[in-house]
Known about the structure:
alpha/beta, Four Helix Bundle (Hemerythrin (Met), subunit A), Rossmann fold, 434 Repressor (Amino-terminal Domain), 3 domains, 8-stranded mixed β-sheet, 62% helix, 9% strand, globular, binds guanosine-5'-triphosphate, binds magnesium ion
Amino acid sequence: MFDQLSDRLQKVMKFLKGEGKITEKNMGEALKMIRMAFLEADVNYKVVKEFEARIKAKALDQAVLDSLTPGQQVIKIVRDELTEILGVSDKPLTFAGTSPSIVMLVGLQGSGKTTTTGKLARWAKGRGKSPLLVSFDLKRAAAQDQLKMIAGSLGLPFYEMTAAAMARPDEALRELVKFTRNRGNDLLLVDTAGRLHVDDELMDELRMVKTILDPVEVIYVGDAMTGQDAVKSAQAFAERIGVTSIILTKLDGDARGGAALSMVSVTGKPIKFVGVGEKSDKLEVFHPDRMASRILGMGDILSLIEKAEQDADVEESEELARKIRRQEFTFEDFKKQLGQLKKMGSLSGMMSHLPNVGPFKGLAQTQIDDRKLVYFEAIINSMTPAERLDPKIINGSRRQRIARGSGRPVHEVNQLLKQFQEMRTMMKKSVFQKMLSSFGK
Ligand SMILES: Nc1nc2c(ncn2[C@@H]2O[C@H](COP(=O)(O)OP(=O)(O)OP(=O)(O)O)[C@@H](O)[C@H]2O)c(=O)[nH]1
Ligand SMILES: [Mg+2]
């Protein structure tokens, strides 16, 4: 479905590859090509504008211009930014700490909620979960039959909402939760009603369901074929009900992909899965980085980027030193460091690999074992980009969310934050000392 966009962006990549030097002029040309490619793919224009501005700022940075391979650096920037607008991938589905995890699917009529409920059930069953399926639609009692059939074909239990129960919806929902718990199902998938347009009645109904069930995930199911309409309605659902994530359906059709590329920026919520067919196994976990690579036709470009990344390693150390000086060292940088450390294999090997051993000495003293590095990375992965850049905003409830997301205890999150702070202070100090000594004290 990204074919056309892919073709066009690959042309830009080729163009850049061919240009030895990056100048304002040829970069301007490349940006124009990128802009057109996105607009034609039906990407929201605001998203396009931001994307363009970010690439421009990064590409015209002196470090890129001065590098030996500016074209390749720019290609890497485009890929990274594309990954960014496709969202952050954490885990495909969030499960609640206490059973059952309740997952509610919402969206417009015909977007694929019922089909996707079945697909998700199948996916979860394959991962050892024991899902129970239910359809909640106050207006259309017959909506249940479709899901009942799907559940039957998957050999999964279906909870029947009787007409009598629907007459007292809040009681019915409470009974449903009790029933699920007693039956021992650890996942309750709730299919909901759809309408042609966002209307107050539906929003009220969905809000009521959400309030009573208190789901761990409210997934907006959007039809990628409807392009910007899906984006607009996603925004409405996000604002009026509150959604936690997105599933895009019908990506097997000839959707131009603009929805996928606009959805995350507009709602701030991640795309977790995509539907690529009508059958119950046609659900794919969404990986922003892989999707970005696919769009750019990375077959031949990947190696270029790897090279650019190698080149960047040296530059990265310098950049790190700059950041430390300006006190801009963030969790993003920390994560990069951890990634490099992991490549080294062991903790003993890693210290020598650090760009500046002095400031990092604290790490060795704080008794981190190799397993901890993995945990730390998981914790950082569960932070939002904003949190990584500015850890000060990580308050109590954010700490709990991060702990849940990473599957690590809260005290470990606290520990990491504390160590990070200490590291920052240490860096500041050692840089300060260096400065003093360079002034002859
Ligand atoms: N090709 C394709 N078709 C899909 C996909 N997902 C759903 N569909 C089809 O889209 C149509 C509508 O899907 P439903 O699951 O009934 O949609 P819904 O959101 O439950 O609709 P309402 O309950 O009427 O609001 C069906 O014909 C599905 O087979 C997909 O990923 N690819
Ligand atoms: Mg349905």
